[in-house]
Amino acid sequence: MNTNASAPRSFWQRAVQTARLCCGVPDYDVYVKHLREHHPERPVPSYGEFFRERQEARYRGTGGRCC
User: Fold this and answer.
1) Could you tell me if residue 54 is inside a domain?
2) DSSP 8-state secondary structure symbol assigned to residue 44
3) How many domains does the chain have?
4) 55: containing domain
5) Residue 67 placed within a domain
6) pTM for the model
7) Cβ-based neighbour number of residue 17 at 10 Å
8) What is the pLDDT along the chain (67 residues), one digit of tens a residue?
């Protein structure tokens, strides 16, 4: 059994996650897992709803940001 077969995929997934976090985009899959484990009574938003809510939370009350 080759345990290193999944290493490139795992690396790529972590690289994508890191890039998204650097740009301020949280990981939707991690959020869904958290909701299901800790808040099962709450509905799981679609990715679009999640993304919009995160963007609004990021820029709310700042008067806009350029950098």
Assistant:
1) yes
2) P
3) 1
4) 25-60
5) no
6) 0.55
7) 15
8) 455 667 777 888 888 777 777 766 668 888 899 999 999 999 999 999 998 888 888 777 655 554 4
